Structure formats: C-alpha cells, structure tokens
Amino acid sequence: TPVLALRNVEKVFGRRGSVTHALNGISFNVGKGEFIGIMGPSGSGKSTLLNCVATIDVPTSGHILVDGQDLTTLSKRQLAAFRRDQMGFVFQDFNLLDTLTAYENIALALTIKHARPSAIPSRVKSIAGTLGIEEVLDKYPYQMSGGQQQRVAAARAIVSDPKLVLADEPTGALDSRSAAVMLDTLDMMNRVLSATIMMVTHDAFAASFAQRVLFIKDGRLFNEIRRGDLSRED
Ligand code: ADP
Ligand code: ADP
C-alpha cells in the first residue's frame, strides 16, 4: 500500500453563481520513504490539495487514503485523532513553544500522542542524536541558533514516527540561508529517518530537494519529473 493515495480528488468552493473548481480530479500515489514536491503557480490549488491531505479541508468528491485508510470515511473526531496520531507538520516559523526547553518541546509531541511516559526520554535522546542537537536539549528556543531551532522543530515533527510529514511552503518567507537549512533538515528527515514527505512549494530550489515533483495547474496535474530525469549523471 502506498503511504498516500489520491483518487480523482475534486474540490469545489462556493455555490450557484460563483463556483471555483480548485481541484479537478487529482490522482497520484506516494510510496513509503518518498519525498515528493507539489509545484504550481499561485491559485493552482496547492494549498487546497495540502489542506485536504492534512484533513483540514474535505474534498467535494474522490478519495484520499493514508496507509490504506480512506479519510473520506472518517468523522470529524476521527479525523482530528488521525491528524494528531499519523501526521507530522513542518512550519517555516518553527512553532516552538518559547517557555519550554528543546527537550520539553520534543517530549510534548510524544505526550500529546499518548506515548508511554517511560519511553519518552530514550526516544527524545535518540532523535536528538540523529539530528545532532543533543547539546541544546536543555536550552530554550531564544538560546538556540535558527538552524538548531529548525532541527528541534524537525525532531518534534518526526519523533512520534508519523506516517506522513507535510510541509507547506517551508521556505516561503525565509532568506536563502535559512531556506537552505530548512531544506537540509527535510532532506535529513527523509534520508536518515526515512520520513515520507509531501512538500508544497512554488520555489524551484526547494522542489529540487524532492525525489519527484508533481506540477499542478488549474487544479490538475500536468507534469511529473523525477530527480535524475534532468541530470546527466545519477
Ligand atoms: P495555491 O495554493 O496554489 O495558491 P489555492 O489552493 O489557495 O491555490 O487556491 C486554488 C483556487 O481555489 C483559487 O482560485 C482560490 O481563489 C480558490 N480558493 C481557495 N480557497 C478558497 C476558499 N476557501 N473559498 C473560495 N475559493 C477558494
Ligand atoms: P496561500 O496559497 O499562500 O496558502 P491563499 O491566498 O491562496 O494563500 O489563501 C489564504 C487563505 O484564504 C486560505 O485559507 C484559502 O483557503 C483562503 N482563500 C483563498 N482564496 C479564497 C477565495 N477566493 N475566497 C475565500 N477564501 C479564499
């Protein structure tokens, strides 16, 4: 089973006179451990697509399956639990809690997902080791560099082993150095921690980090490029 499968997903906003077809029958699969990018111009339907996969929005028709579970069959409450337990989110502004240390920020993500308390310390230390942030675990966000905060945020998104990690314009408002740190972190989550990632972006540099990029326009997929298709080596 693919981690994510979209089957003819349509989303229509509005009614009567003013109707917008934001998604016009989108179908694709994302396999386990894949890092895919969704690219398209403003208004092409990227946010709507991401919101539907994130269970924040509901498709008008079609199906979205995560690890074989059809999201369109779940109630609002089940969707909230599914989002909490099975998905990780990466935000460009980190979203760390200022009053908690790095350790506490990461541990909180496990507590929210009802992890066994006795399992939390070893899990946090293991992920911190992998991401190279052991030395900042006792620090507060304001005591860390931007890159360290980014890694703590990545640790928090992935510590509970979500089926799917979603990144919405992760480099959108960042300067080029911060954007590079963000993309390195996503790359590390994918390659070292085997995270399955779907990233929505209008930034070609960001998209170049994905293994496969789907291009969307007017709510339809119109092209797909795999990394390697454009390079001579690899
Ligand atoms: P993108 O993220 O690629 O910029 P969006 O998914 O935000 O595109 O928008 C796709 C289309 O759907 C646009 O025409 C947009 O105006 C419309 N749209 C998005 N959200 C809503 C909404 N809540 N109500 C009405 N129209 C919407
Ligand atoms: P972005 O594409 O950067 O996420 P947008 O400007 O497309 O931002 O949308 C911002 C918010 O406004 C989203 O929640 C979207 O659903 C909503 N939105 C977008 N277009 C419309 C619209 N035509 N009518 C109502 N809401 C909209």
UniProtKB/TrEMBL annotation:
<protein>
    <submittedName>
        <fullName>ATP-binding cassette domain-containing protein</fullName>
    </submittedName>
</protein>
<keyword id="KW-0813">Transport</keyword>
<feature type="domain" description="ABC transporter">
    <location>
        <begin position="4"/>
        <end position="234"/>
    </location>
</feature>
<keyword id="KW-0067">ATP-binding</keyword>
<dbReference type="GO" id="GO:0005524">
    <property type="term" value="F:ATP binding"/>
</dbReference>
<keyword id="KW-0547">Nucleotide-binding</keyword>
